[in-house]
Amino acid sequence: MSTAETPTEMPLCEQAPGENPICENPVEQFLRTDRMPHIWCPGCGIGTTVNCFARALLKTGLDLRKVVVVSGIGCTGRVAGYVKLDSFHTTHGRAIPFATGLKLANPELTVVVYSGDGDLTSIGGNHLIHAARRNLDLKVICVNNLTYSMTGGQAAATTPEDSITTTSPYGAFEPAMNIPHLVAAAGATFVARWTTFHVAQTMKAMQRMLTRRGFSFLEVISPCPTLYQRRNQMGDGLDTMKHYKEVSVSNNNANLAEIGMTKSGQITVGNFLEIERPDYLEAMRAQLRNRLQERYIEVGGAPCQN
Amino acid sequence: MPELASRREVAAAPDAVERELTEIRVAGFGGQGVILAAQILGKAAAIFDGVHATMTQNFGPEARGGACSAQLIVARHPVLYPYVTKADILVAMSQEAFGKFVPELKQGGLLLVERDLVRIQQDLPERVRTYGVPATRIAEKLGKRVVQNIVMLGFFGAVTEVVSRKAMEQAVLSSVPASMAALNKDALQAGYEVGRACLESRLPASECDQIPEYAAWLD
Amino acid sequence: MHADPTGVLTGTHFLNGDQACCEGALAGGARFSAGYPITPSTEIVERFSKRIPTIGGVFIQMEDELAASIAIQGAVWAGAKAFTVTSGPGFSLMMEHIGLAAMTETPCVFVDVQRGGPSTGLPTLPAQGDMMQARFGSHGDYPCIALCPSSPQECFTLMVRAMNLAEEFRTPVFLMMDEVVGHMTERVQIPPAETIAVTPRKLTDKAPGEFRPYEDSEDLVPPMAHAGEGYQFHVTGLTHDERGYPSMTPATQAKLIRRLREKITRGMDRITQVEEDNVDGAEVVVVSYGITMRVAQRAIKLARAEGIAVGGMRLVTVWPFPEERIHALAGRVRALVIPELNMGQVALEVERCARGATQVIPVPHAGATVHDPQQILDAIRKGAGR
To answer: What are the chain A neighbours of C70 within 8 Å (beta carbons)?
Structure first.
């Protein structure tokens, strides 16, 4: 069982002489404050993940001008709109292929795909599989709240059996998709799952993803108190944190075939997988250089201007 | 500009508004190099002779063995209608291709066949002149069966005058890998020689084996 | 500015329309393409995948057309010029991202080598049945530019033009080919790079912090920034304000949708390309586009041989529709004849623009081959009252 810890490396409240003494949130520098308030409900876990993401970014010391966030559609899809980075809010399910074009046309960019479970695994499931297979250097953060929230709480591919949703009013009976198992099988080279209770671990996993190369996937189990928890009598956001704490078992060596989500059973969390193999661009360059020798012109970081 | 020989006899064609054009159908089975042959012919006309040529190919779902054909229109003016309406020349490299396309051959048109693969069993349109060449056998004797299409092109060049000899050679050499240039040149040459011998003998196709230059390839 | 010589295959070639289109894309500056195989368009990206590694750029074969049509947009925002190619069934899948490109004003080119439809239809045989789909296929109101080549040479020339128009107007541009043009092989002249005009991307000269991605500009085409340059801008398919931020108000929607439309309307003179042949004094004018234009010309020649005063109007750009040109023409002729390889799509536009001033005679064709010139000749005779 893991416990949460709040990172303390973050500067908390620094006040220069003569400045407004109001304490600013250190994460604020990563946010488009002119877009606040955000649309997320009280108790929603998405904001927690964004907080972790901002802190992870800060820790990596990456040049923020070169970090891009791409989202699809849905509640998590709105992340792109709130982070003060080059950010793209694309179409439903297609954040990964958009990110593919960005990365290949300018390999200097650190490309983060930040989206929800419905977006990434259902309508965008095919793209998820193929990006993992290619080991494309994308950092995919999937906030899994087990339902379609933006549209009012319908059953998703990730909804655990027996859960009540607006389109499974008598309880879902399709098995929920086991996302870490899927992406690992498809060829991802980093796979982790945490919950919004595990903020330190989530942040560390994000930090690792941001600094390594290859297809990296993080699933963050997150509450939707308004639509999922309420309909399933699971309490509010705080109750869900208690539940996560109670049922989470951290096991980096878990058998991924056995970690599918159930309605109230154990949630296996951990950094399950990290392996090295050439990413898409490395493989492409090696192959073309081998075949074409000096005739191959490698695409550099500088985008063509016209 | 080469003389468009085959057009001379079809001045009364229904598409008189577009005189000075030659409609050619090249057909065989997949793997015989039918499309490449039509492409080389078109290239010879359009690039090296400086006239106009439009080539279209007919696709079937099968990559090998199925019927396969290409259409080529060669003209002094830009080609408008891209397809063969009545063929001035039919190059048939298989029995199936012959049977399928001989009905579209114009009266007084030219029929060129791979003599070992096509038996002329049905009536031809009136005044059609037929020439046959053992293209596959010649190609095999030269060392590689794949150049059968180039032998056929040489034969075509000799009996039709649609494109100049020089253009044909340039088109062949710019379309094949450099390592295969000599073999293709020989294939083209052999086709031309057999074709010229047939033409000069004035013998019907069925009696061409009597010509020494022709017979030499048959044993 | 002119084309980068690295991508220009200057010389005289014997190419099919698909191959020529690829050369046009390269000459026009495309350095990224994403595709998914579909007959009869595949030869375009087959050639691109072979050529691009020695020029400097990327081709990626995606998992489907949805992916291909948005991967190119990612590449555009990273700084590349990009295009994708497809045919009917794939074009249907790309509709969502055509809307995205129009909404986010992402310059890119979609090539549709039209085949017989609907559904799987005729994979290897021609049609011009996607003309209205290009215009209205994605949901919502958006403008579009569509060009129709009628020869391999034009596949080259008009692909360069499509790439340029996409940049000039920051909009998706369609090159509406058809199976005949795509698979037809003819002589293609590719001029020297220094004679090929290429439109550079309109980039902002403002500093980060001052840049507003969708701000008003005189020509209604806002300058862009690329990702990774420090602008930290936001792009969304939601209705957005000048900052690029979502804003769901009637005022924002009206301003954005009107500007998207107006930027094309205002550029009509620079976009519209129409060729006329003996239109003055004609009793009947045949209005055609793409491969059908060539077949129509044969019919026109036959009609002239019968003494009918017949002219031709060929639409090189079908969208935006040359409304005023058609209207002006309608007032001067006895009939307009519209042959097309569909059951009457552009004919509807002609009828609308003629506003009852003349007789409009469609010559529909279900596809699988081109018209028999005789069918068009019969319509010309009918229009001339013979």
So the answer is: 90-91, 94, 97-98, 101
Tokens standing for residue A272: 């399950």
Chain A positions touching C57 (Cβ under 8 A) are: 299, 304
Our count of domains for chain C comes to: 2
Q: Which residues of A touch C81 (CB under 8 A)?
A: 304, 306
Residue among C21, C376, C42, C378 nearest B80 (CA): C376
The answer to whether B and A touch (≥3 CB pairs < 8 Å) is no
Question: Mind telling me how many Å the CA of A169 is from chain C's nearest CA?
Answer: 31
Query: Cβ–Cβ of B57/C180 closer than 8 Å?
Result: no
Give B5-215's CATH code, choosing from 3.40.920.10, 3.30.40.230, 3.40.910.10, 3.40.50.10680.
3.40.920.10
Distances (CA, A) of B27 to A305, B36, B164, C115, C122: 48, 11, 22, 24, 22
DSSP-derived letter for residue C5 is G
Smallest CA–CA distance, residue C36 to chain A, in Å, is 13
Mutation for testing the A interface, residue in C48, C51, C236 having most A CBs under 10 Å: C236
Domain that holds residue C142: 5-195
DSSP state of A100: H
**Chain-chain contact of C186 with B53 (C-beta, under 8 angstroms):** yes
Using the CB atoms, write b or e for A201-210: b if 16+ within 10 Å.
bbbbbbbbbb
Vertex A177 angle, CA A171 and A180, to 5°: 145
pLDDT at B7: 35
- Express each pLDDT in C285-297 by its tens digit: 999 999 999 999 9
Class of domain A26-295: alpha beta
Chains that touch C (3 or more CB pairs under 8 A): A, B
Q: What's CA B159's distance to the chain center, in Å?
A: 9
* ipTM reported for the complex surpasses 0.90: yes
- B vs C, Cβ pairs < 8 A, gives 62
| Tokens, residue A231 | 């309909």
What is the token pair recorded at A86? 């080059």
What is the per-residue pLDDT across C3-19, written as a single tens digit (0 to 9) for each?
999 999 999 999 999 99
pLDDT, tens digit, for every residue of C64-111?
Answer: 999 999 999 999 999 999 999 999 999 999 999 999 999 999 999 999
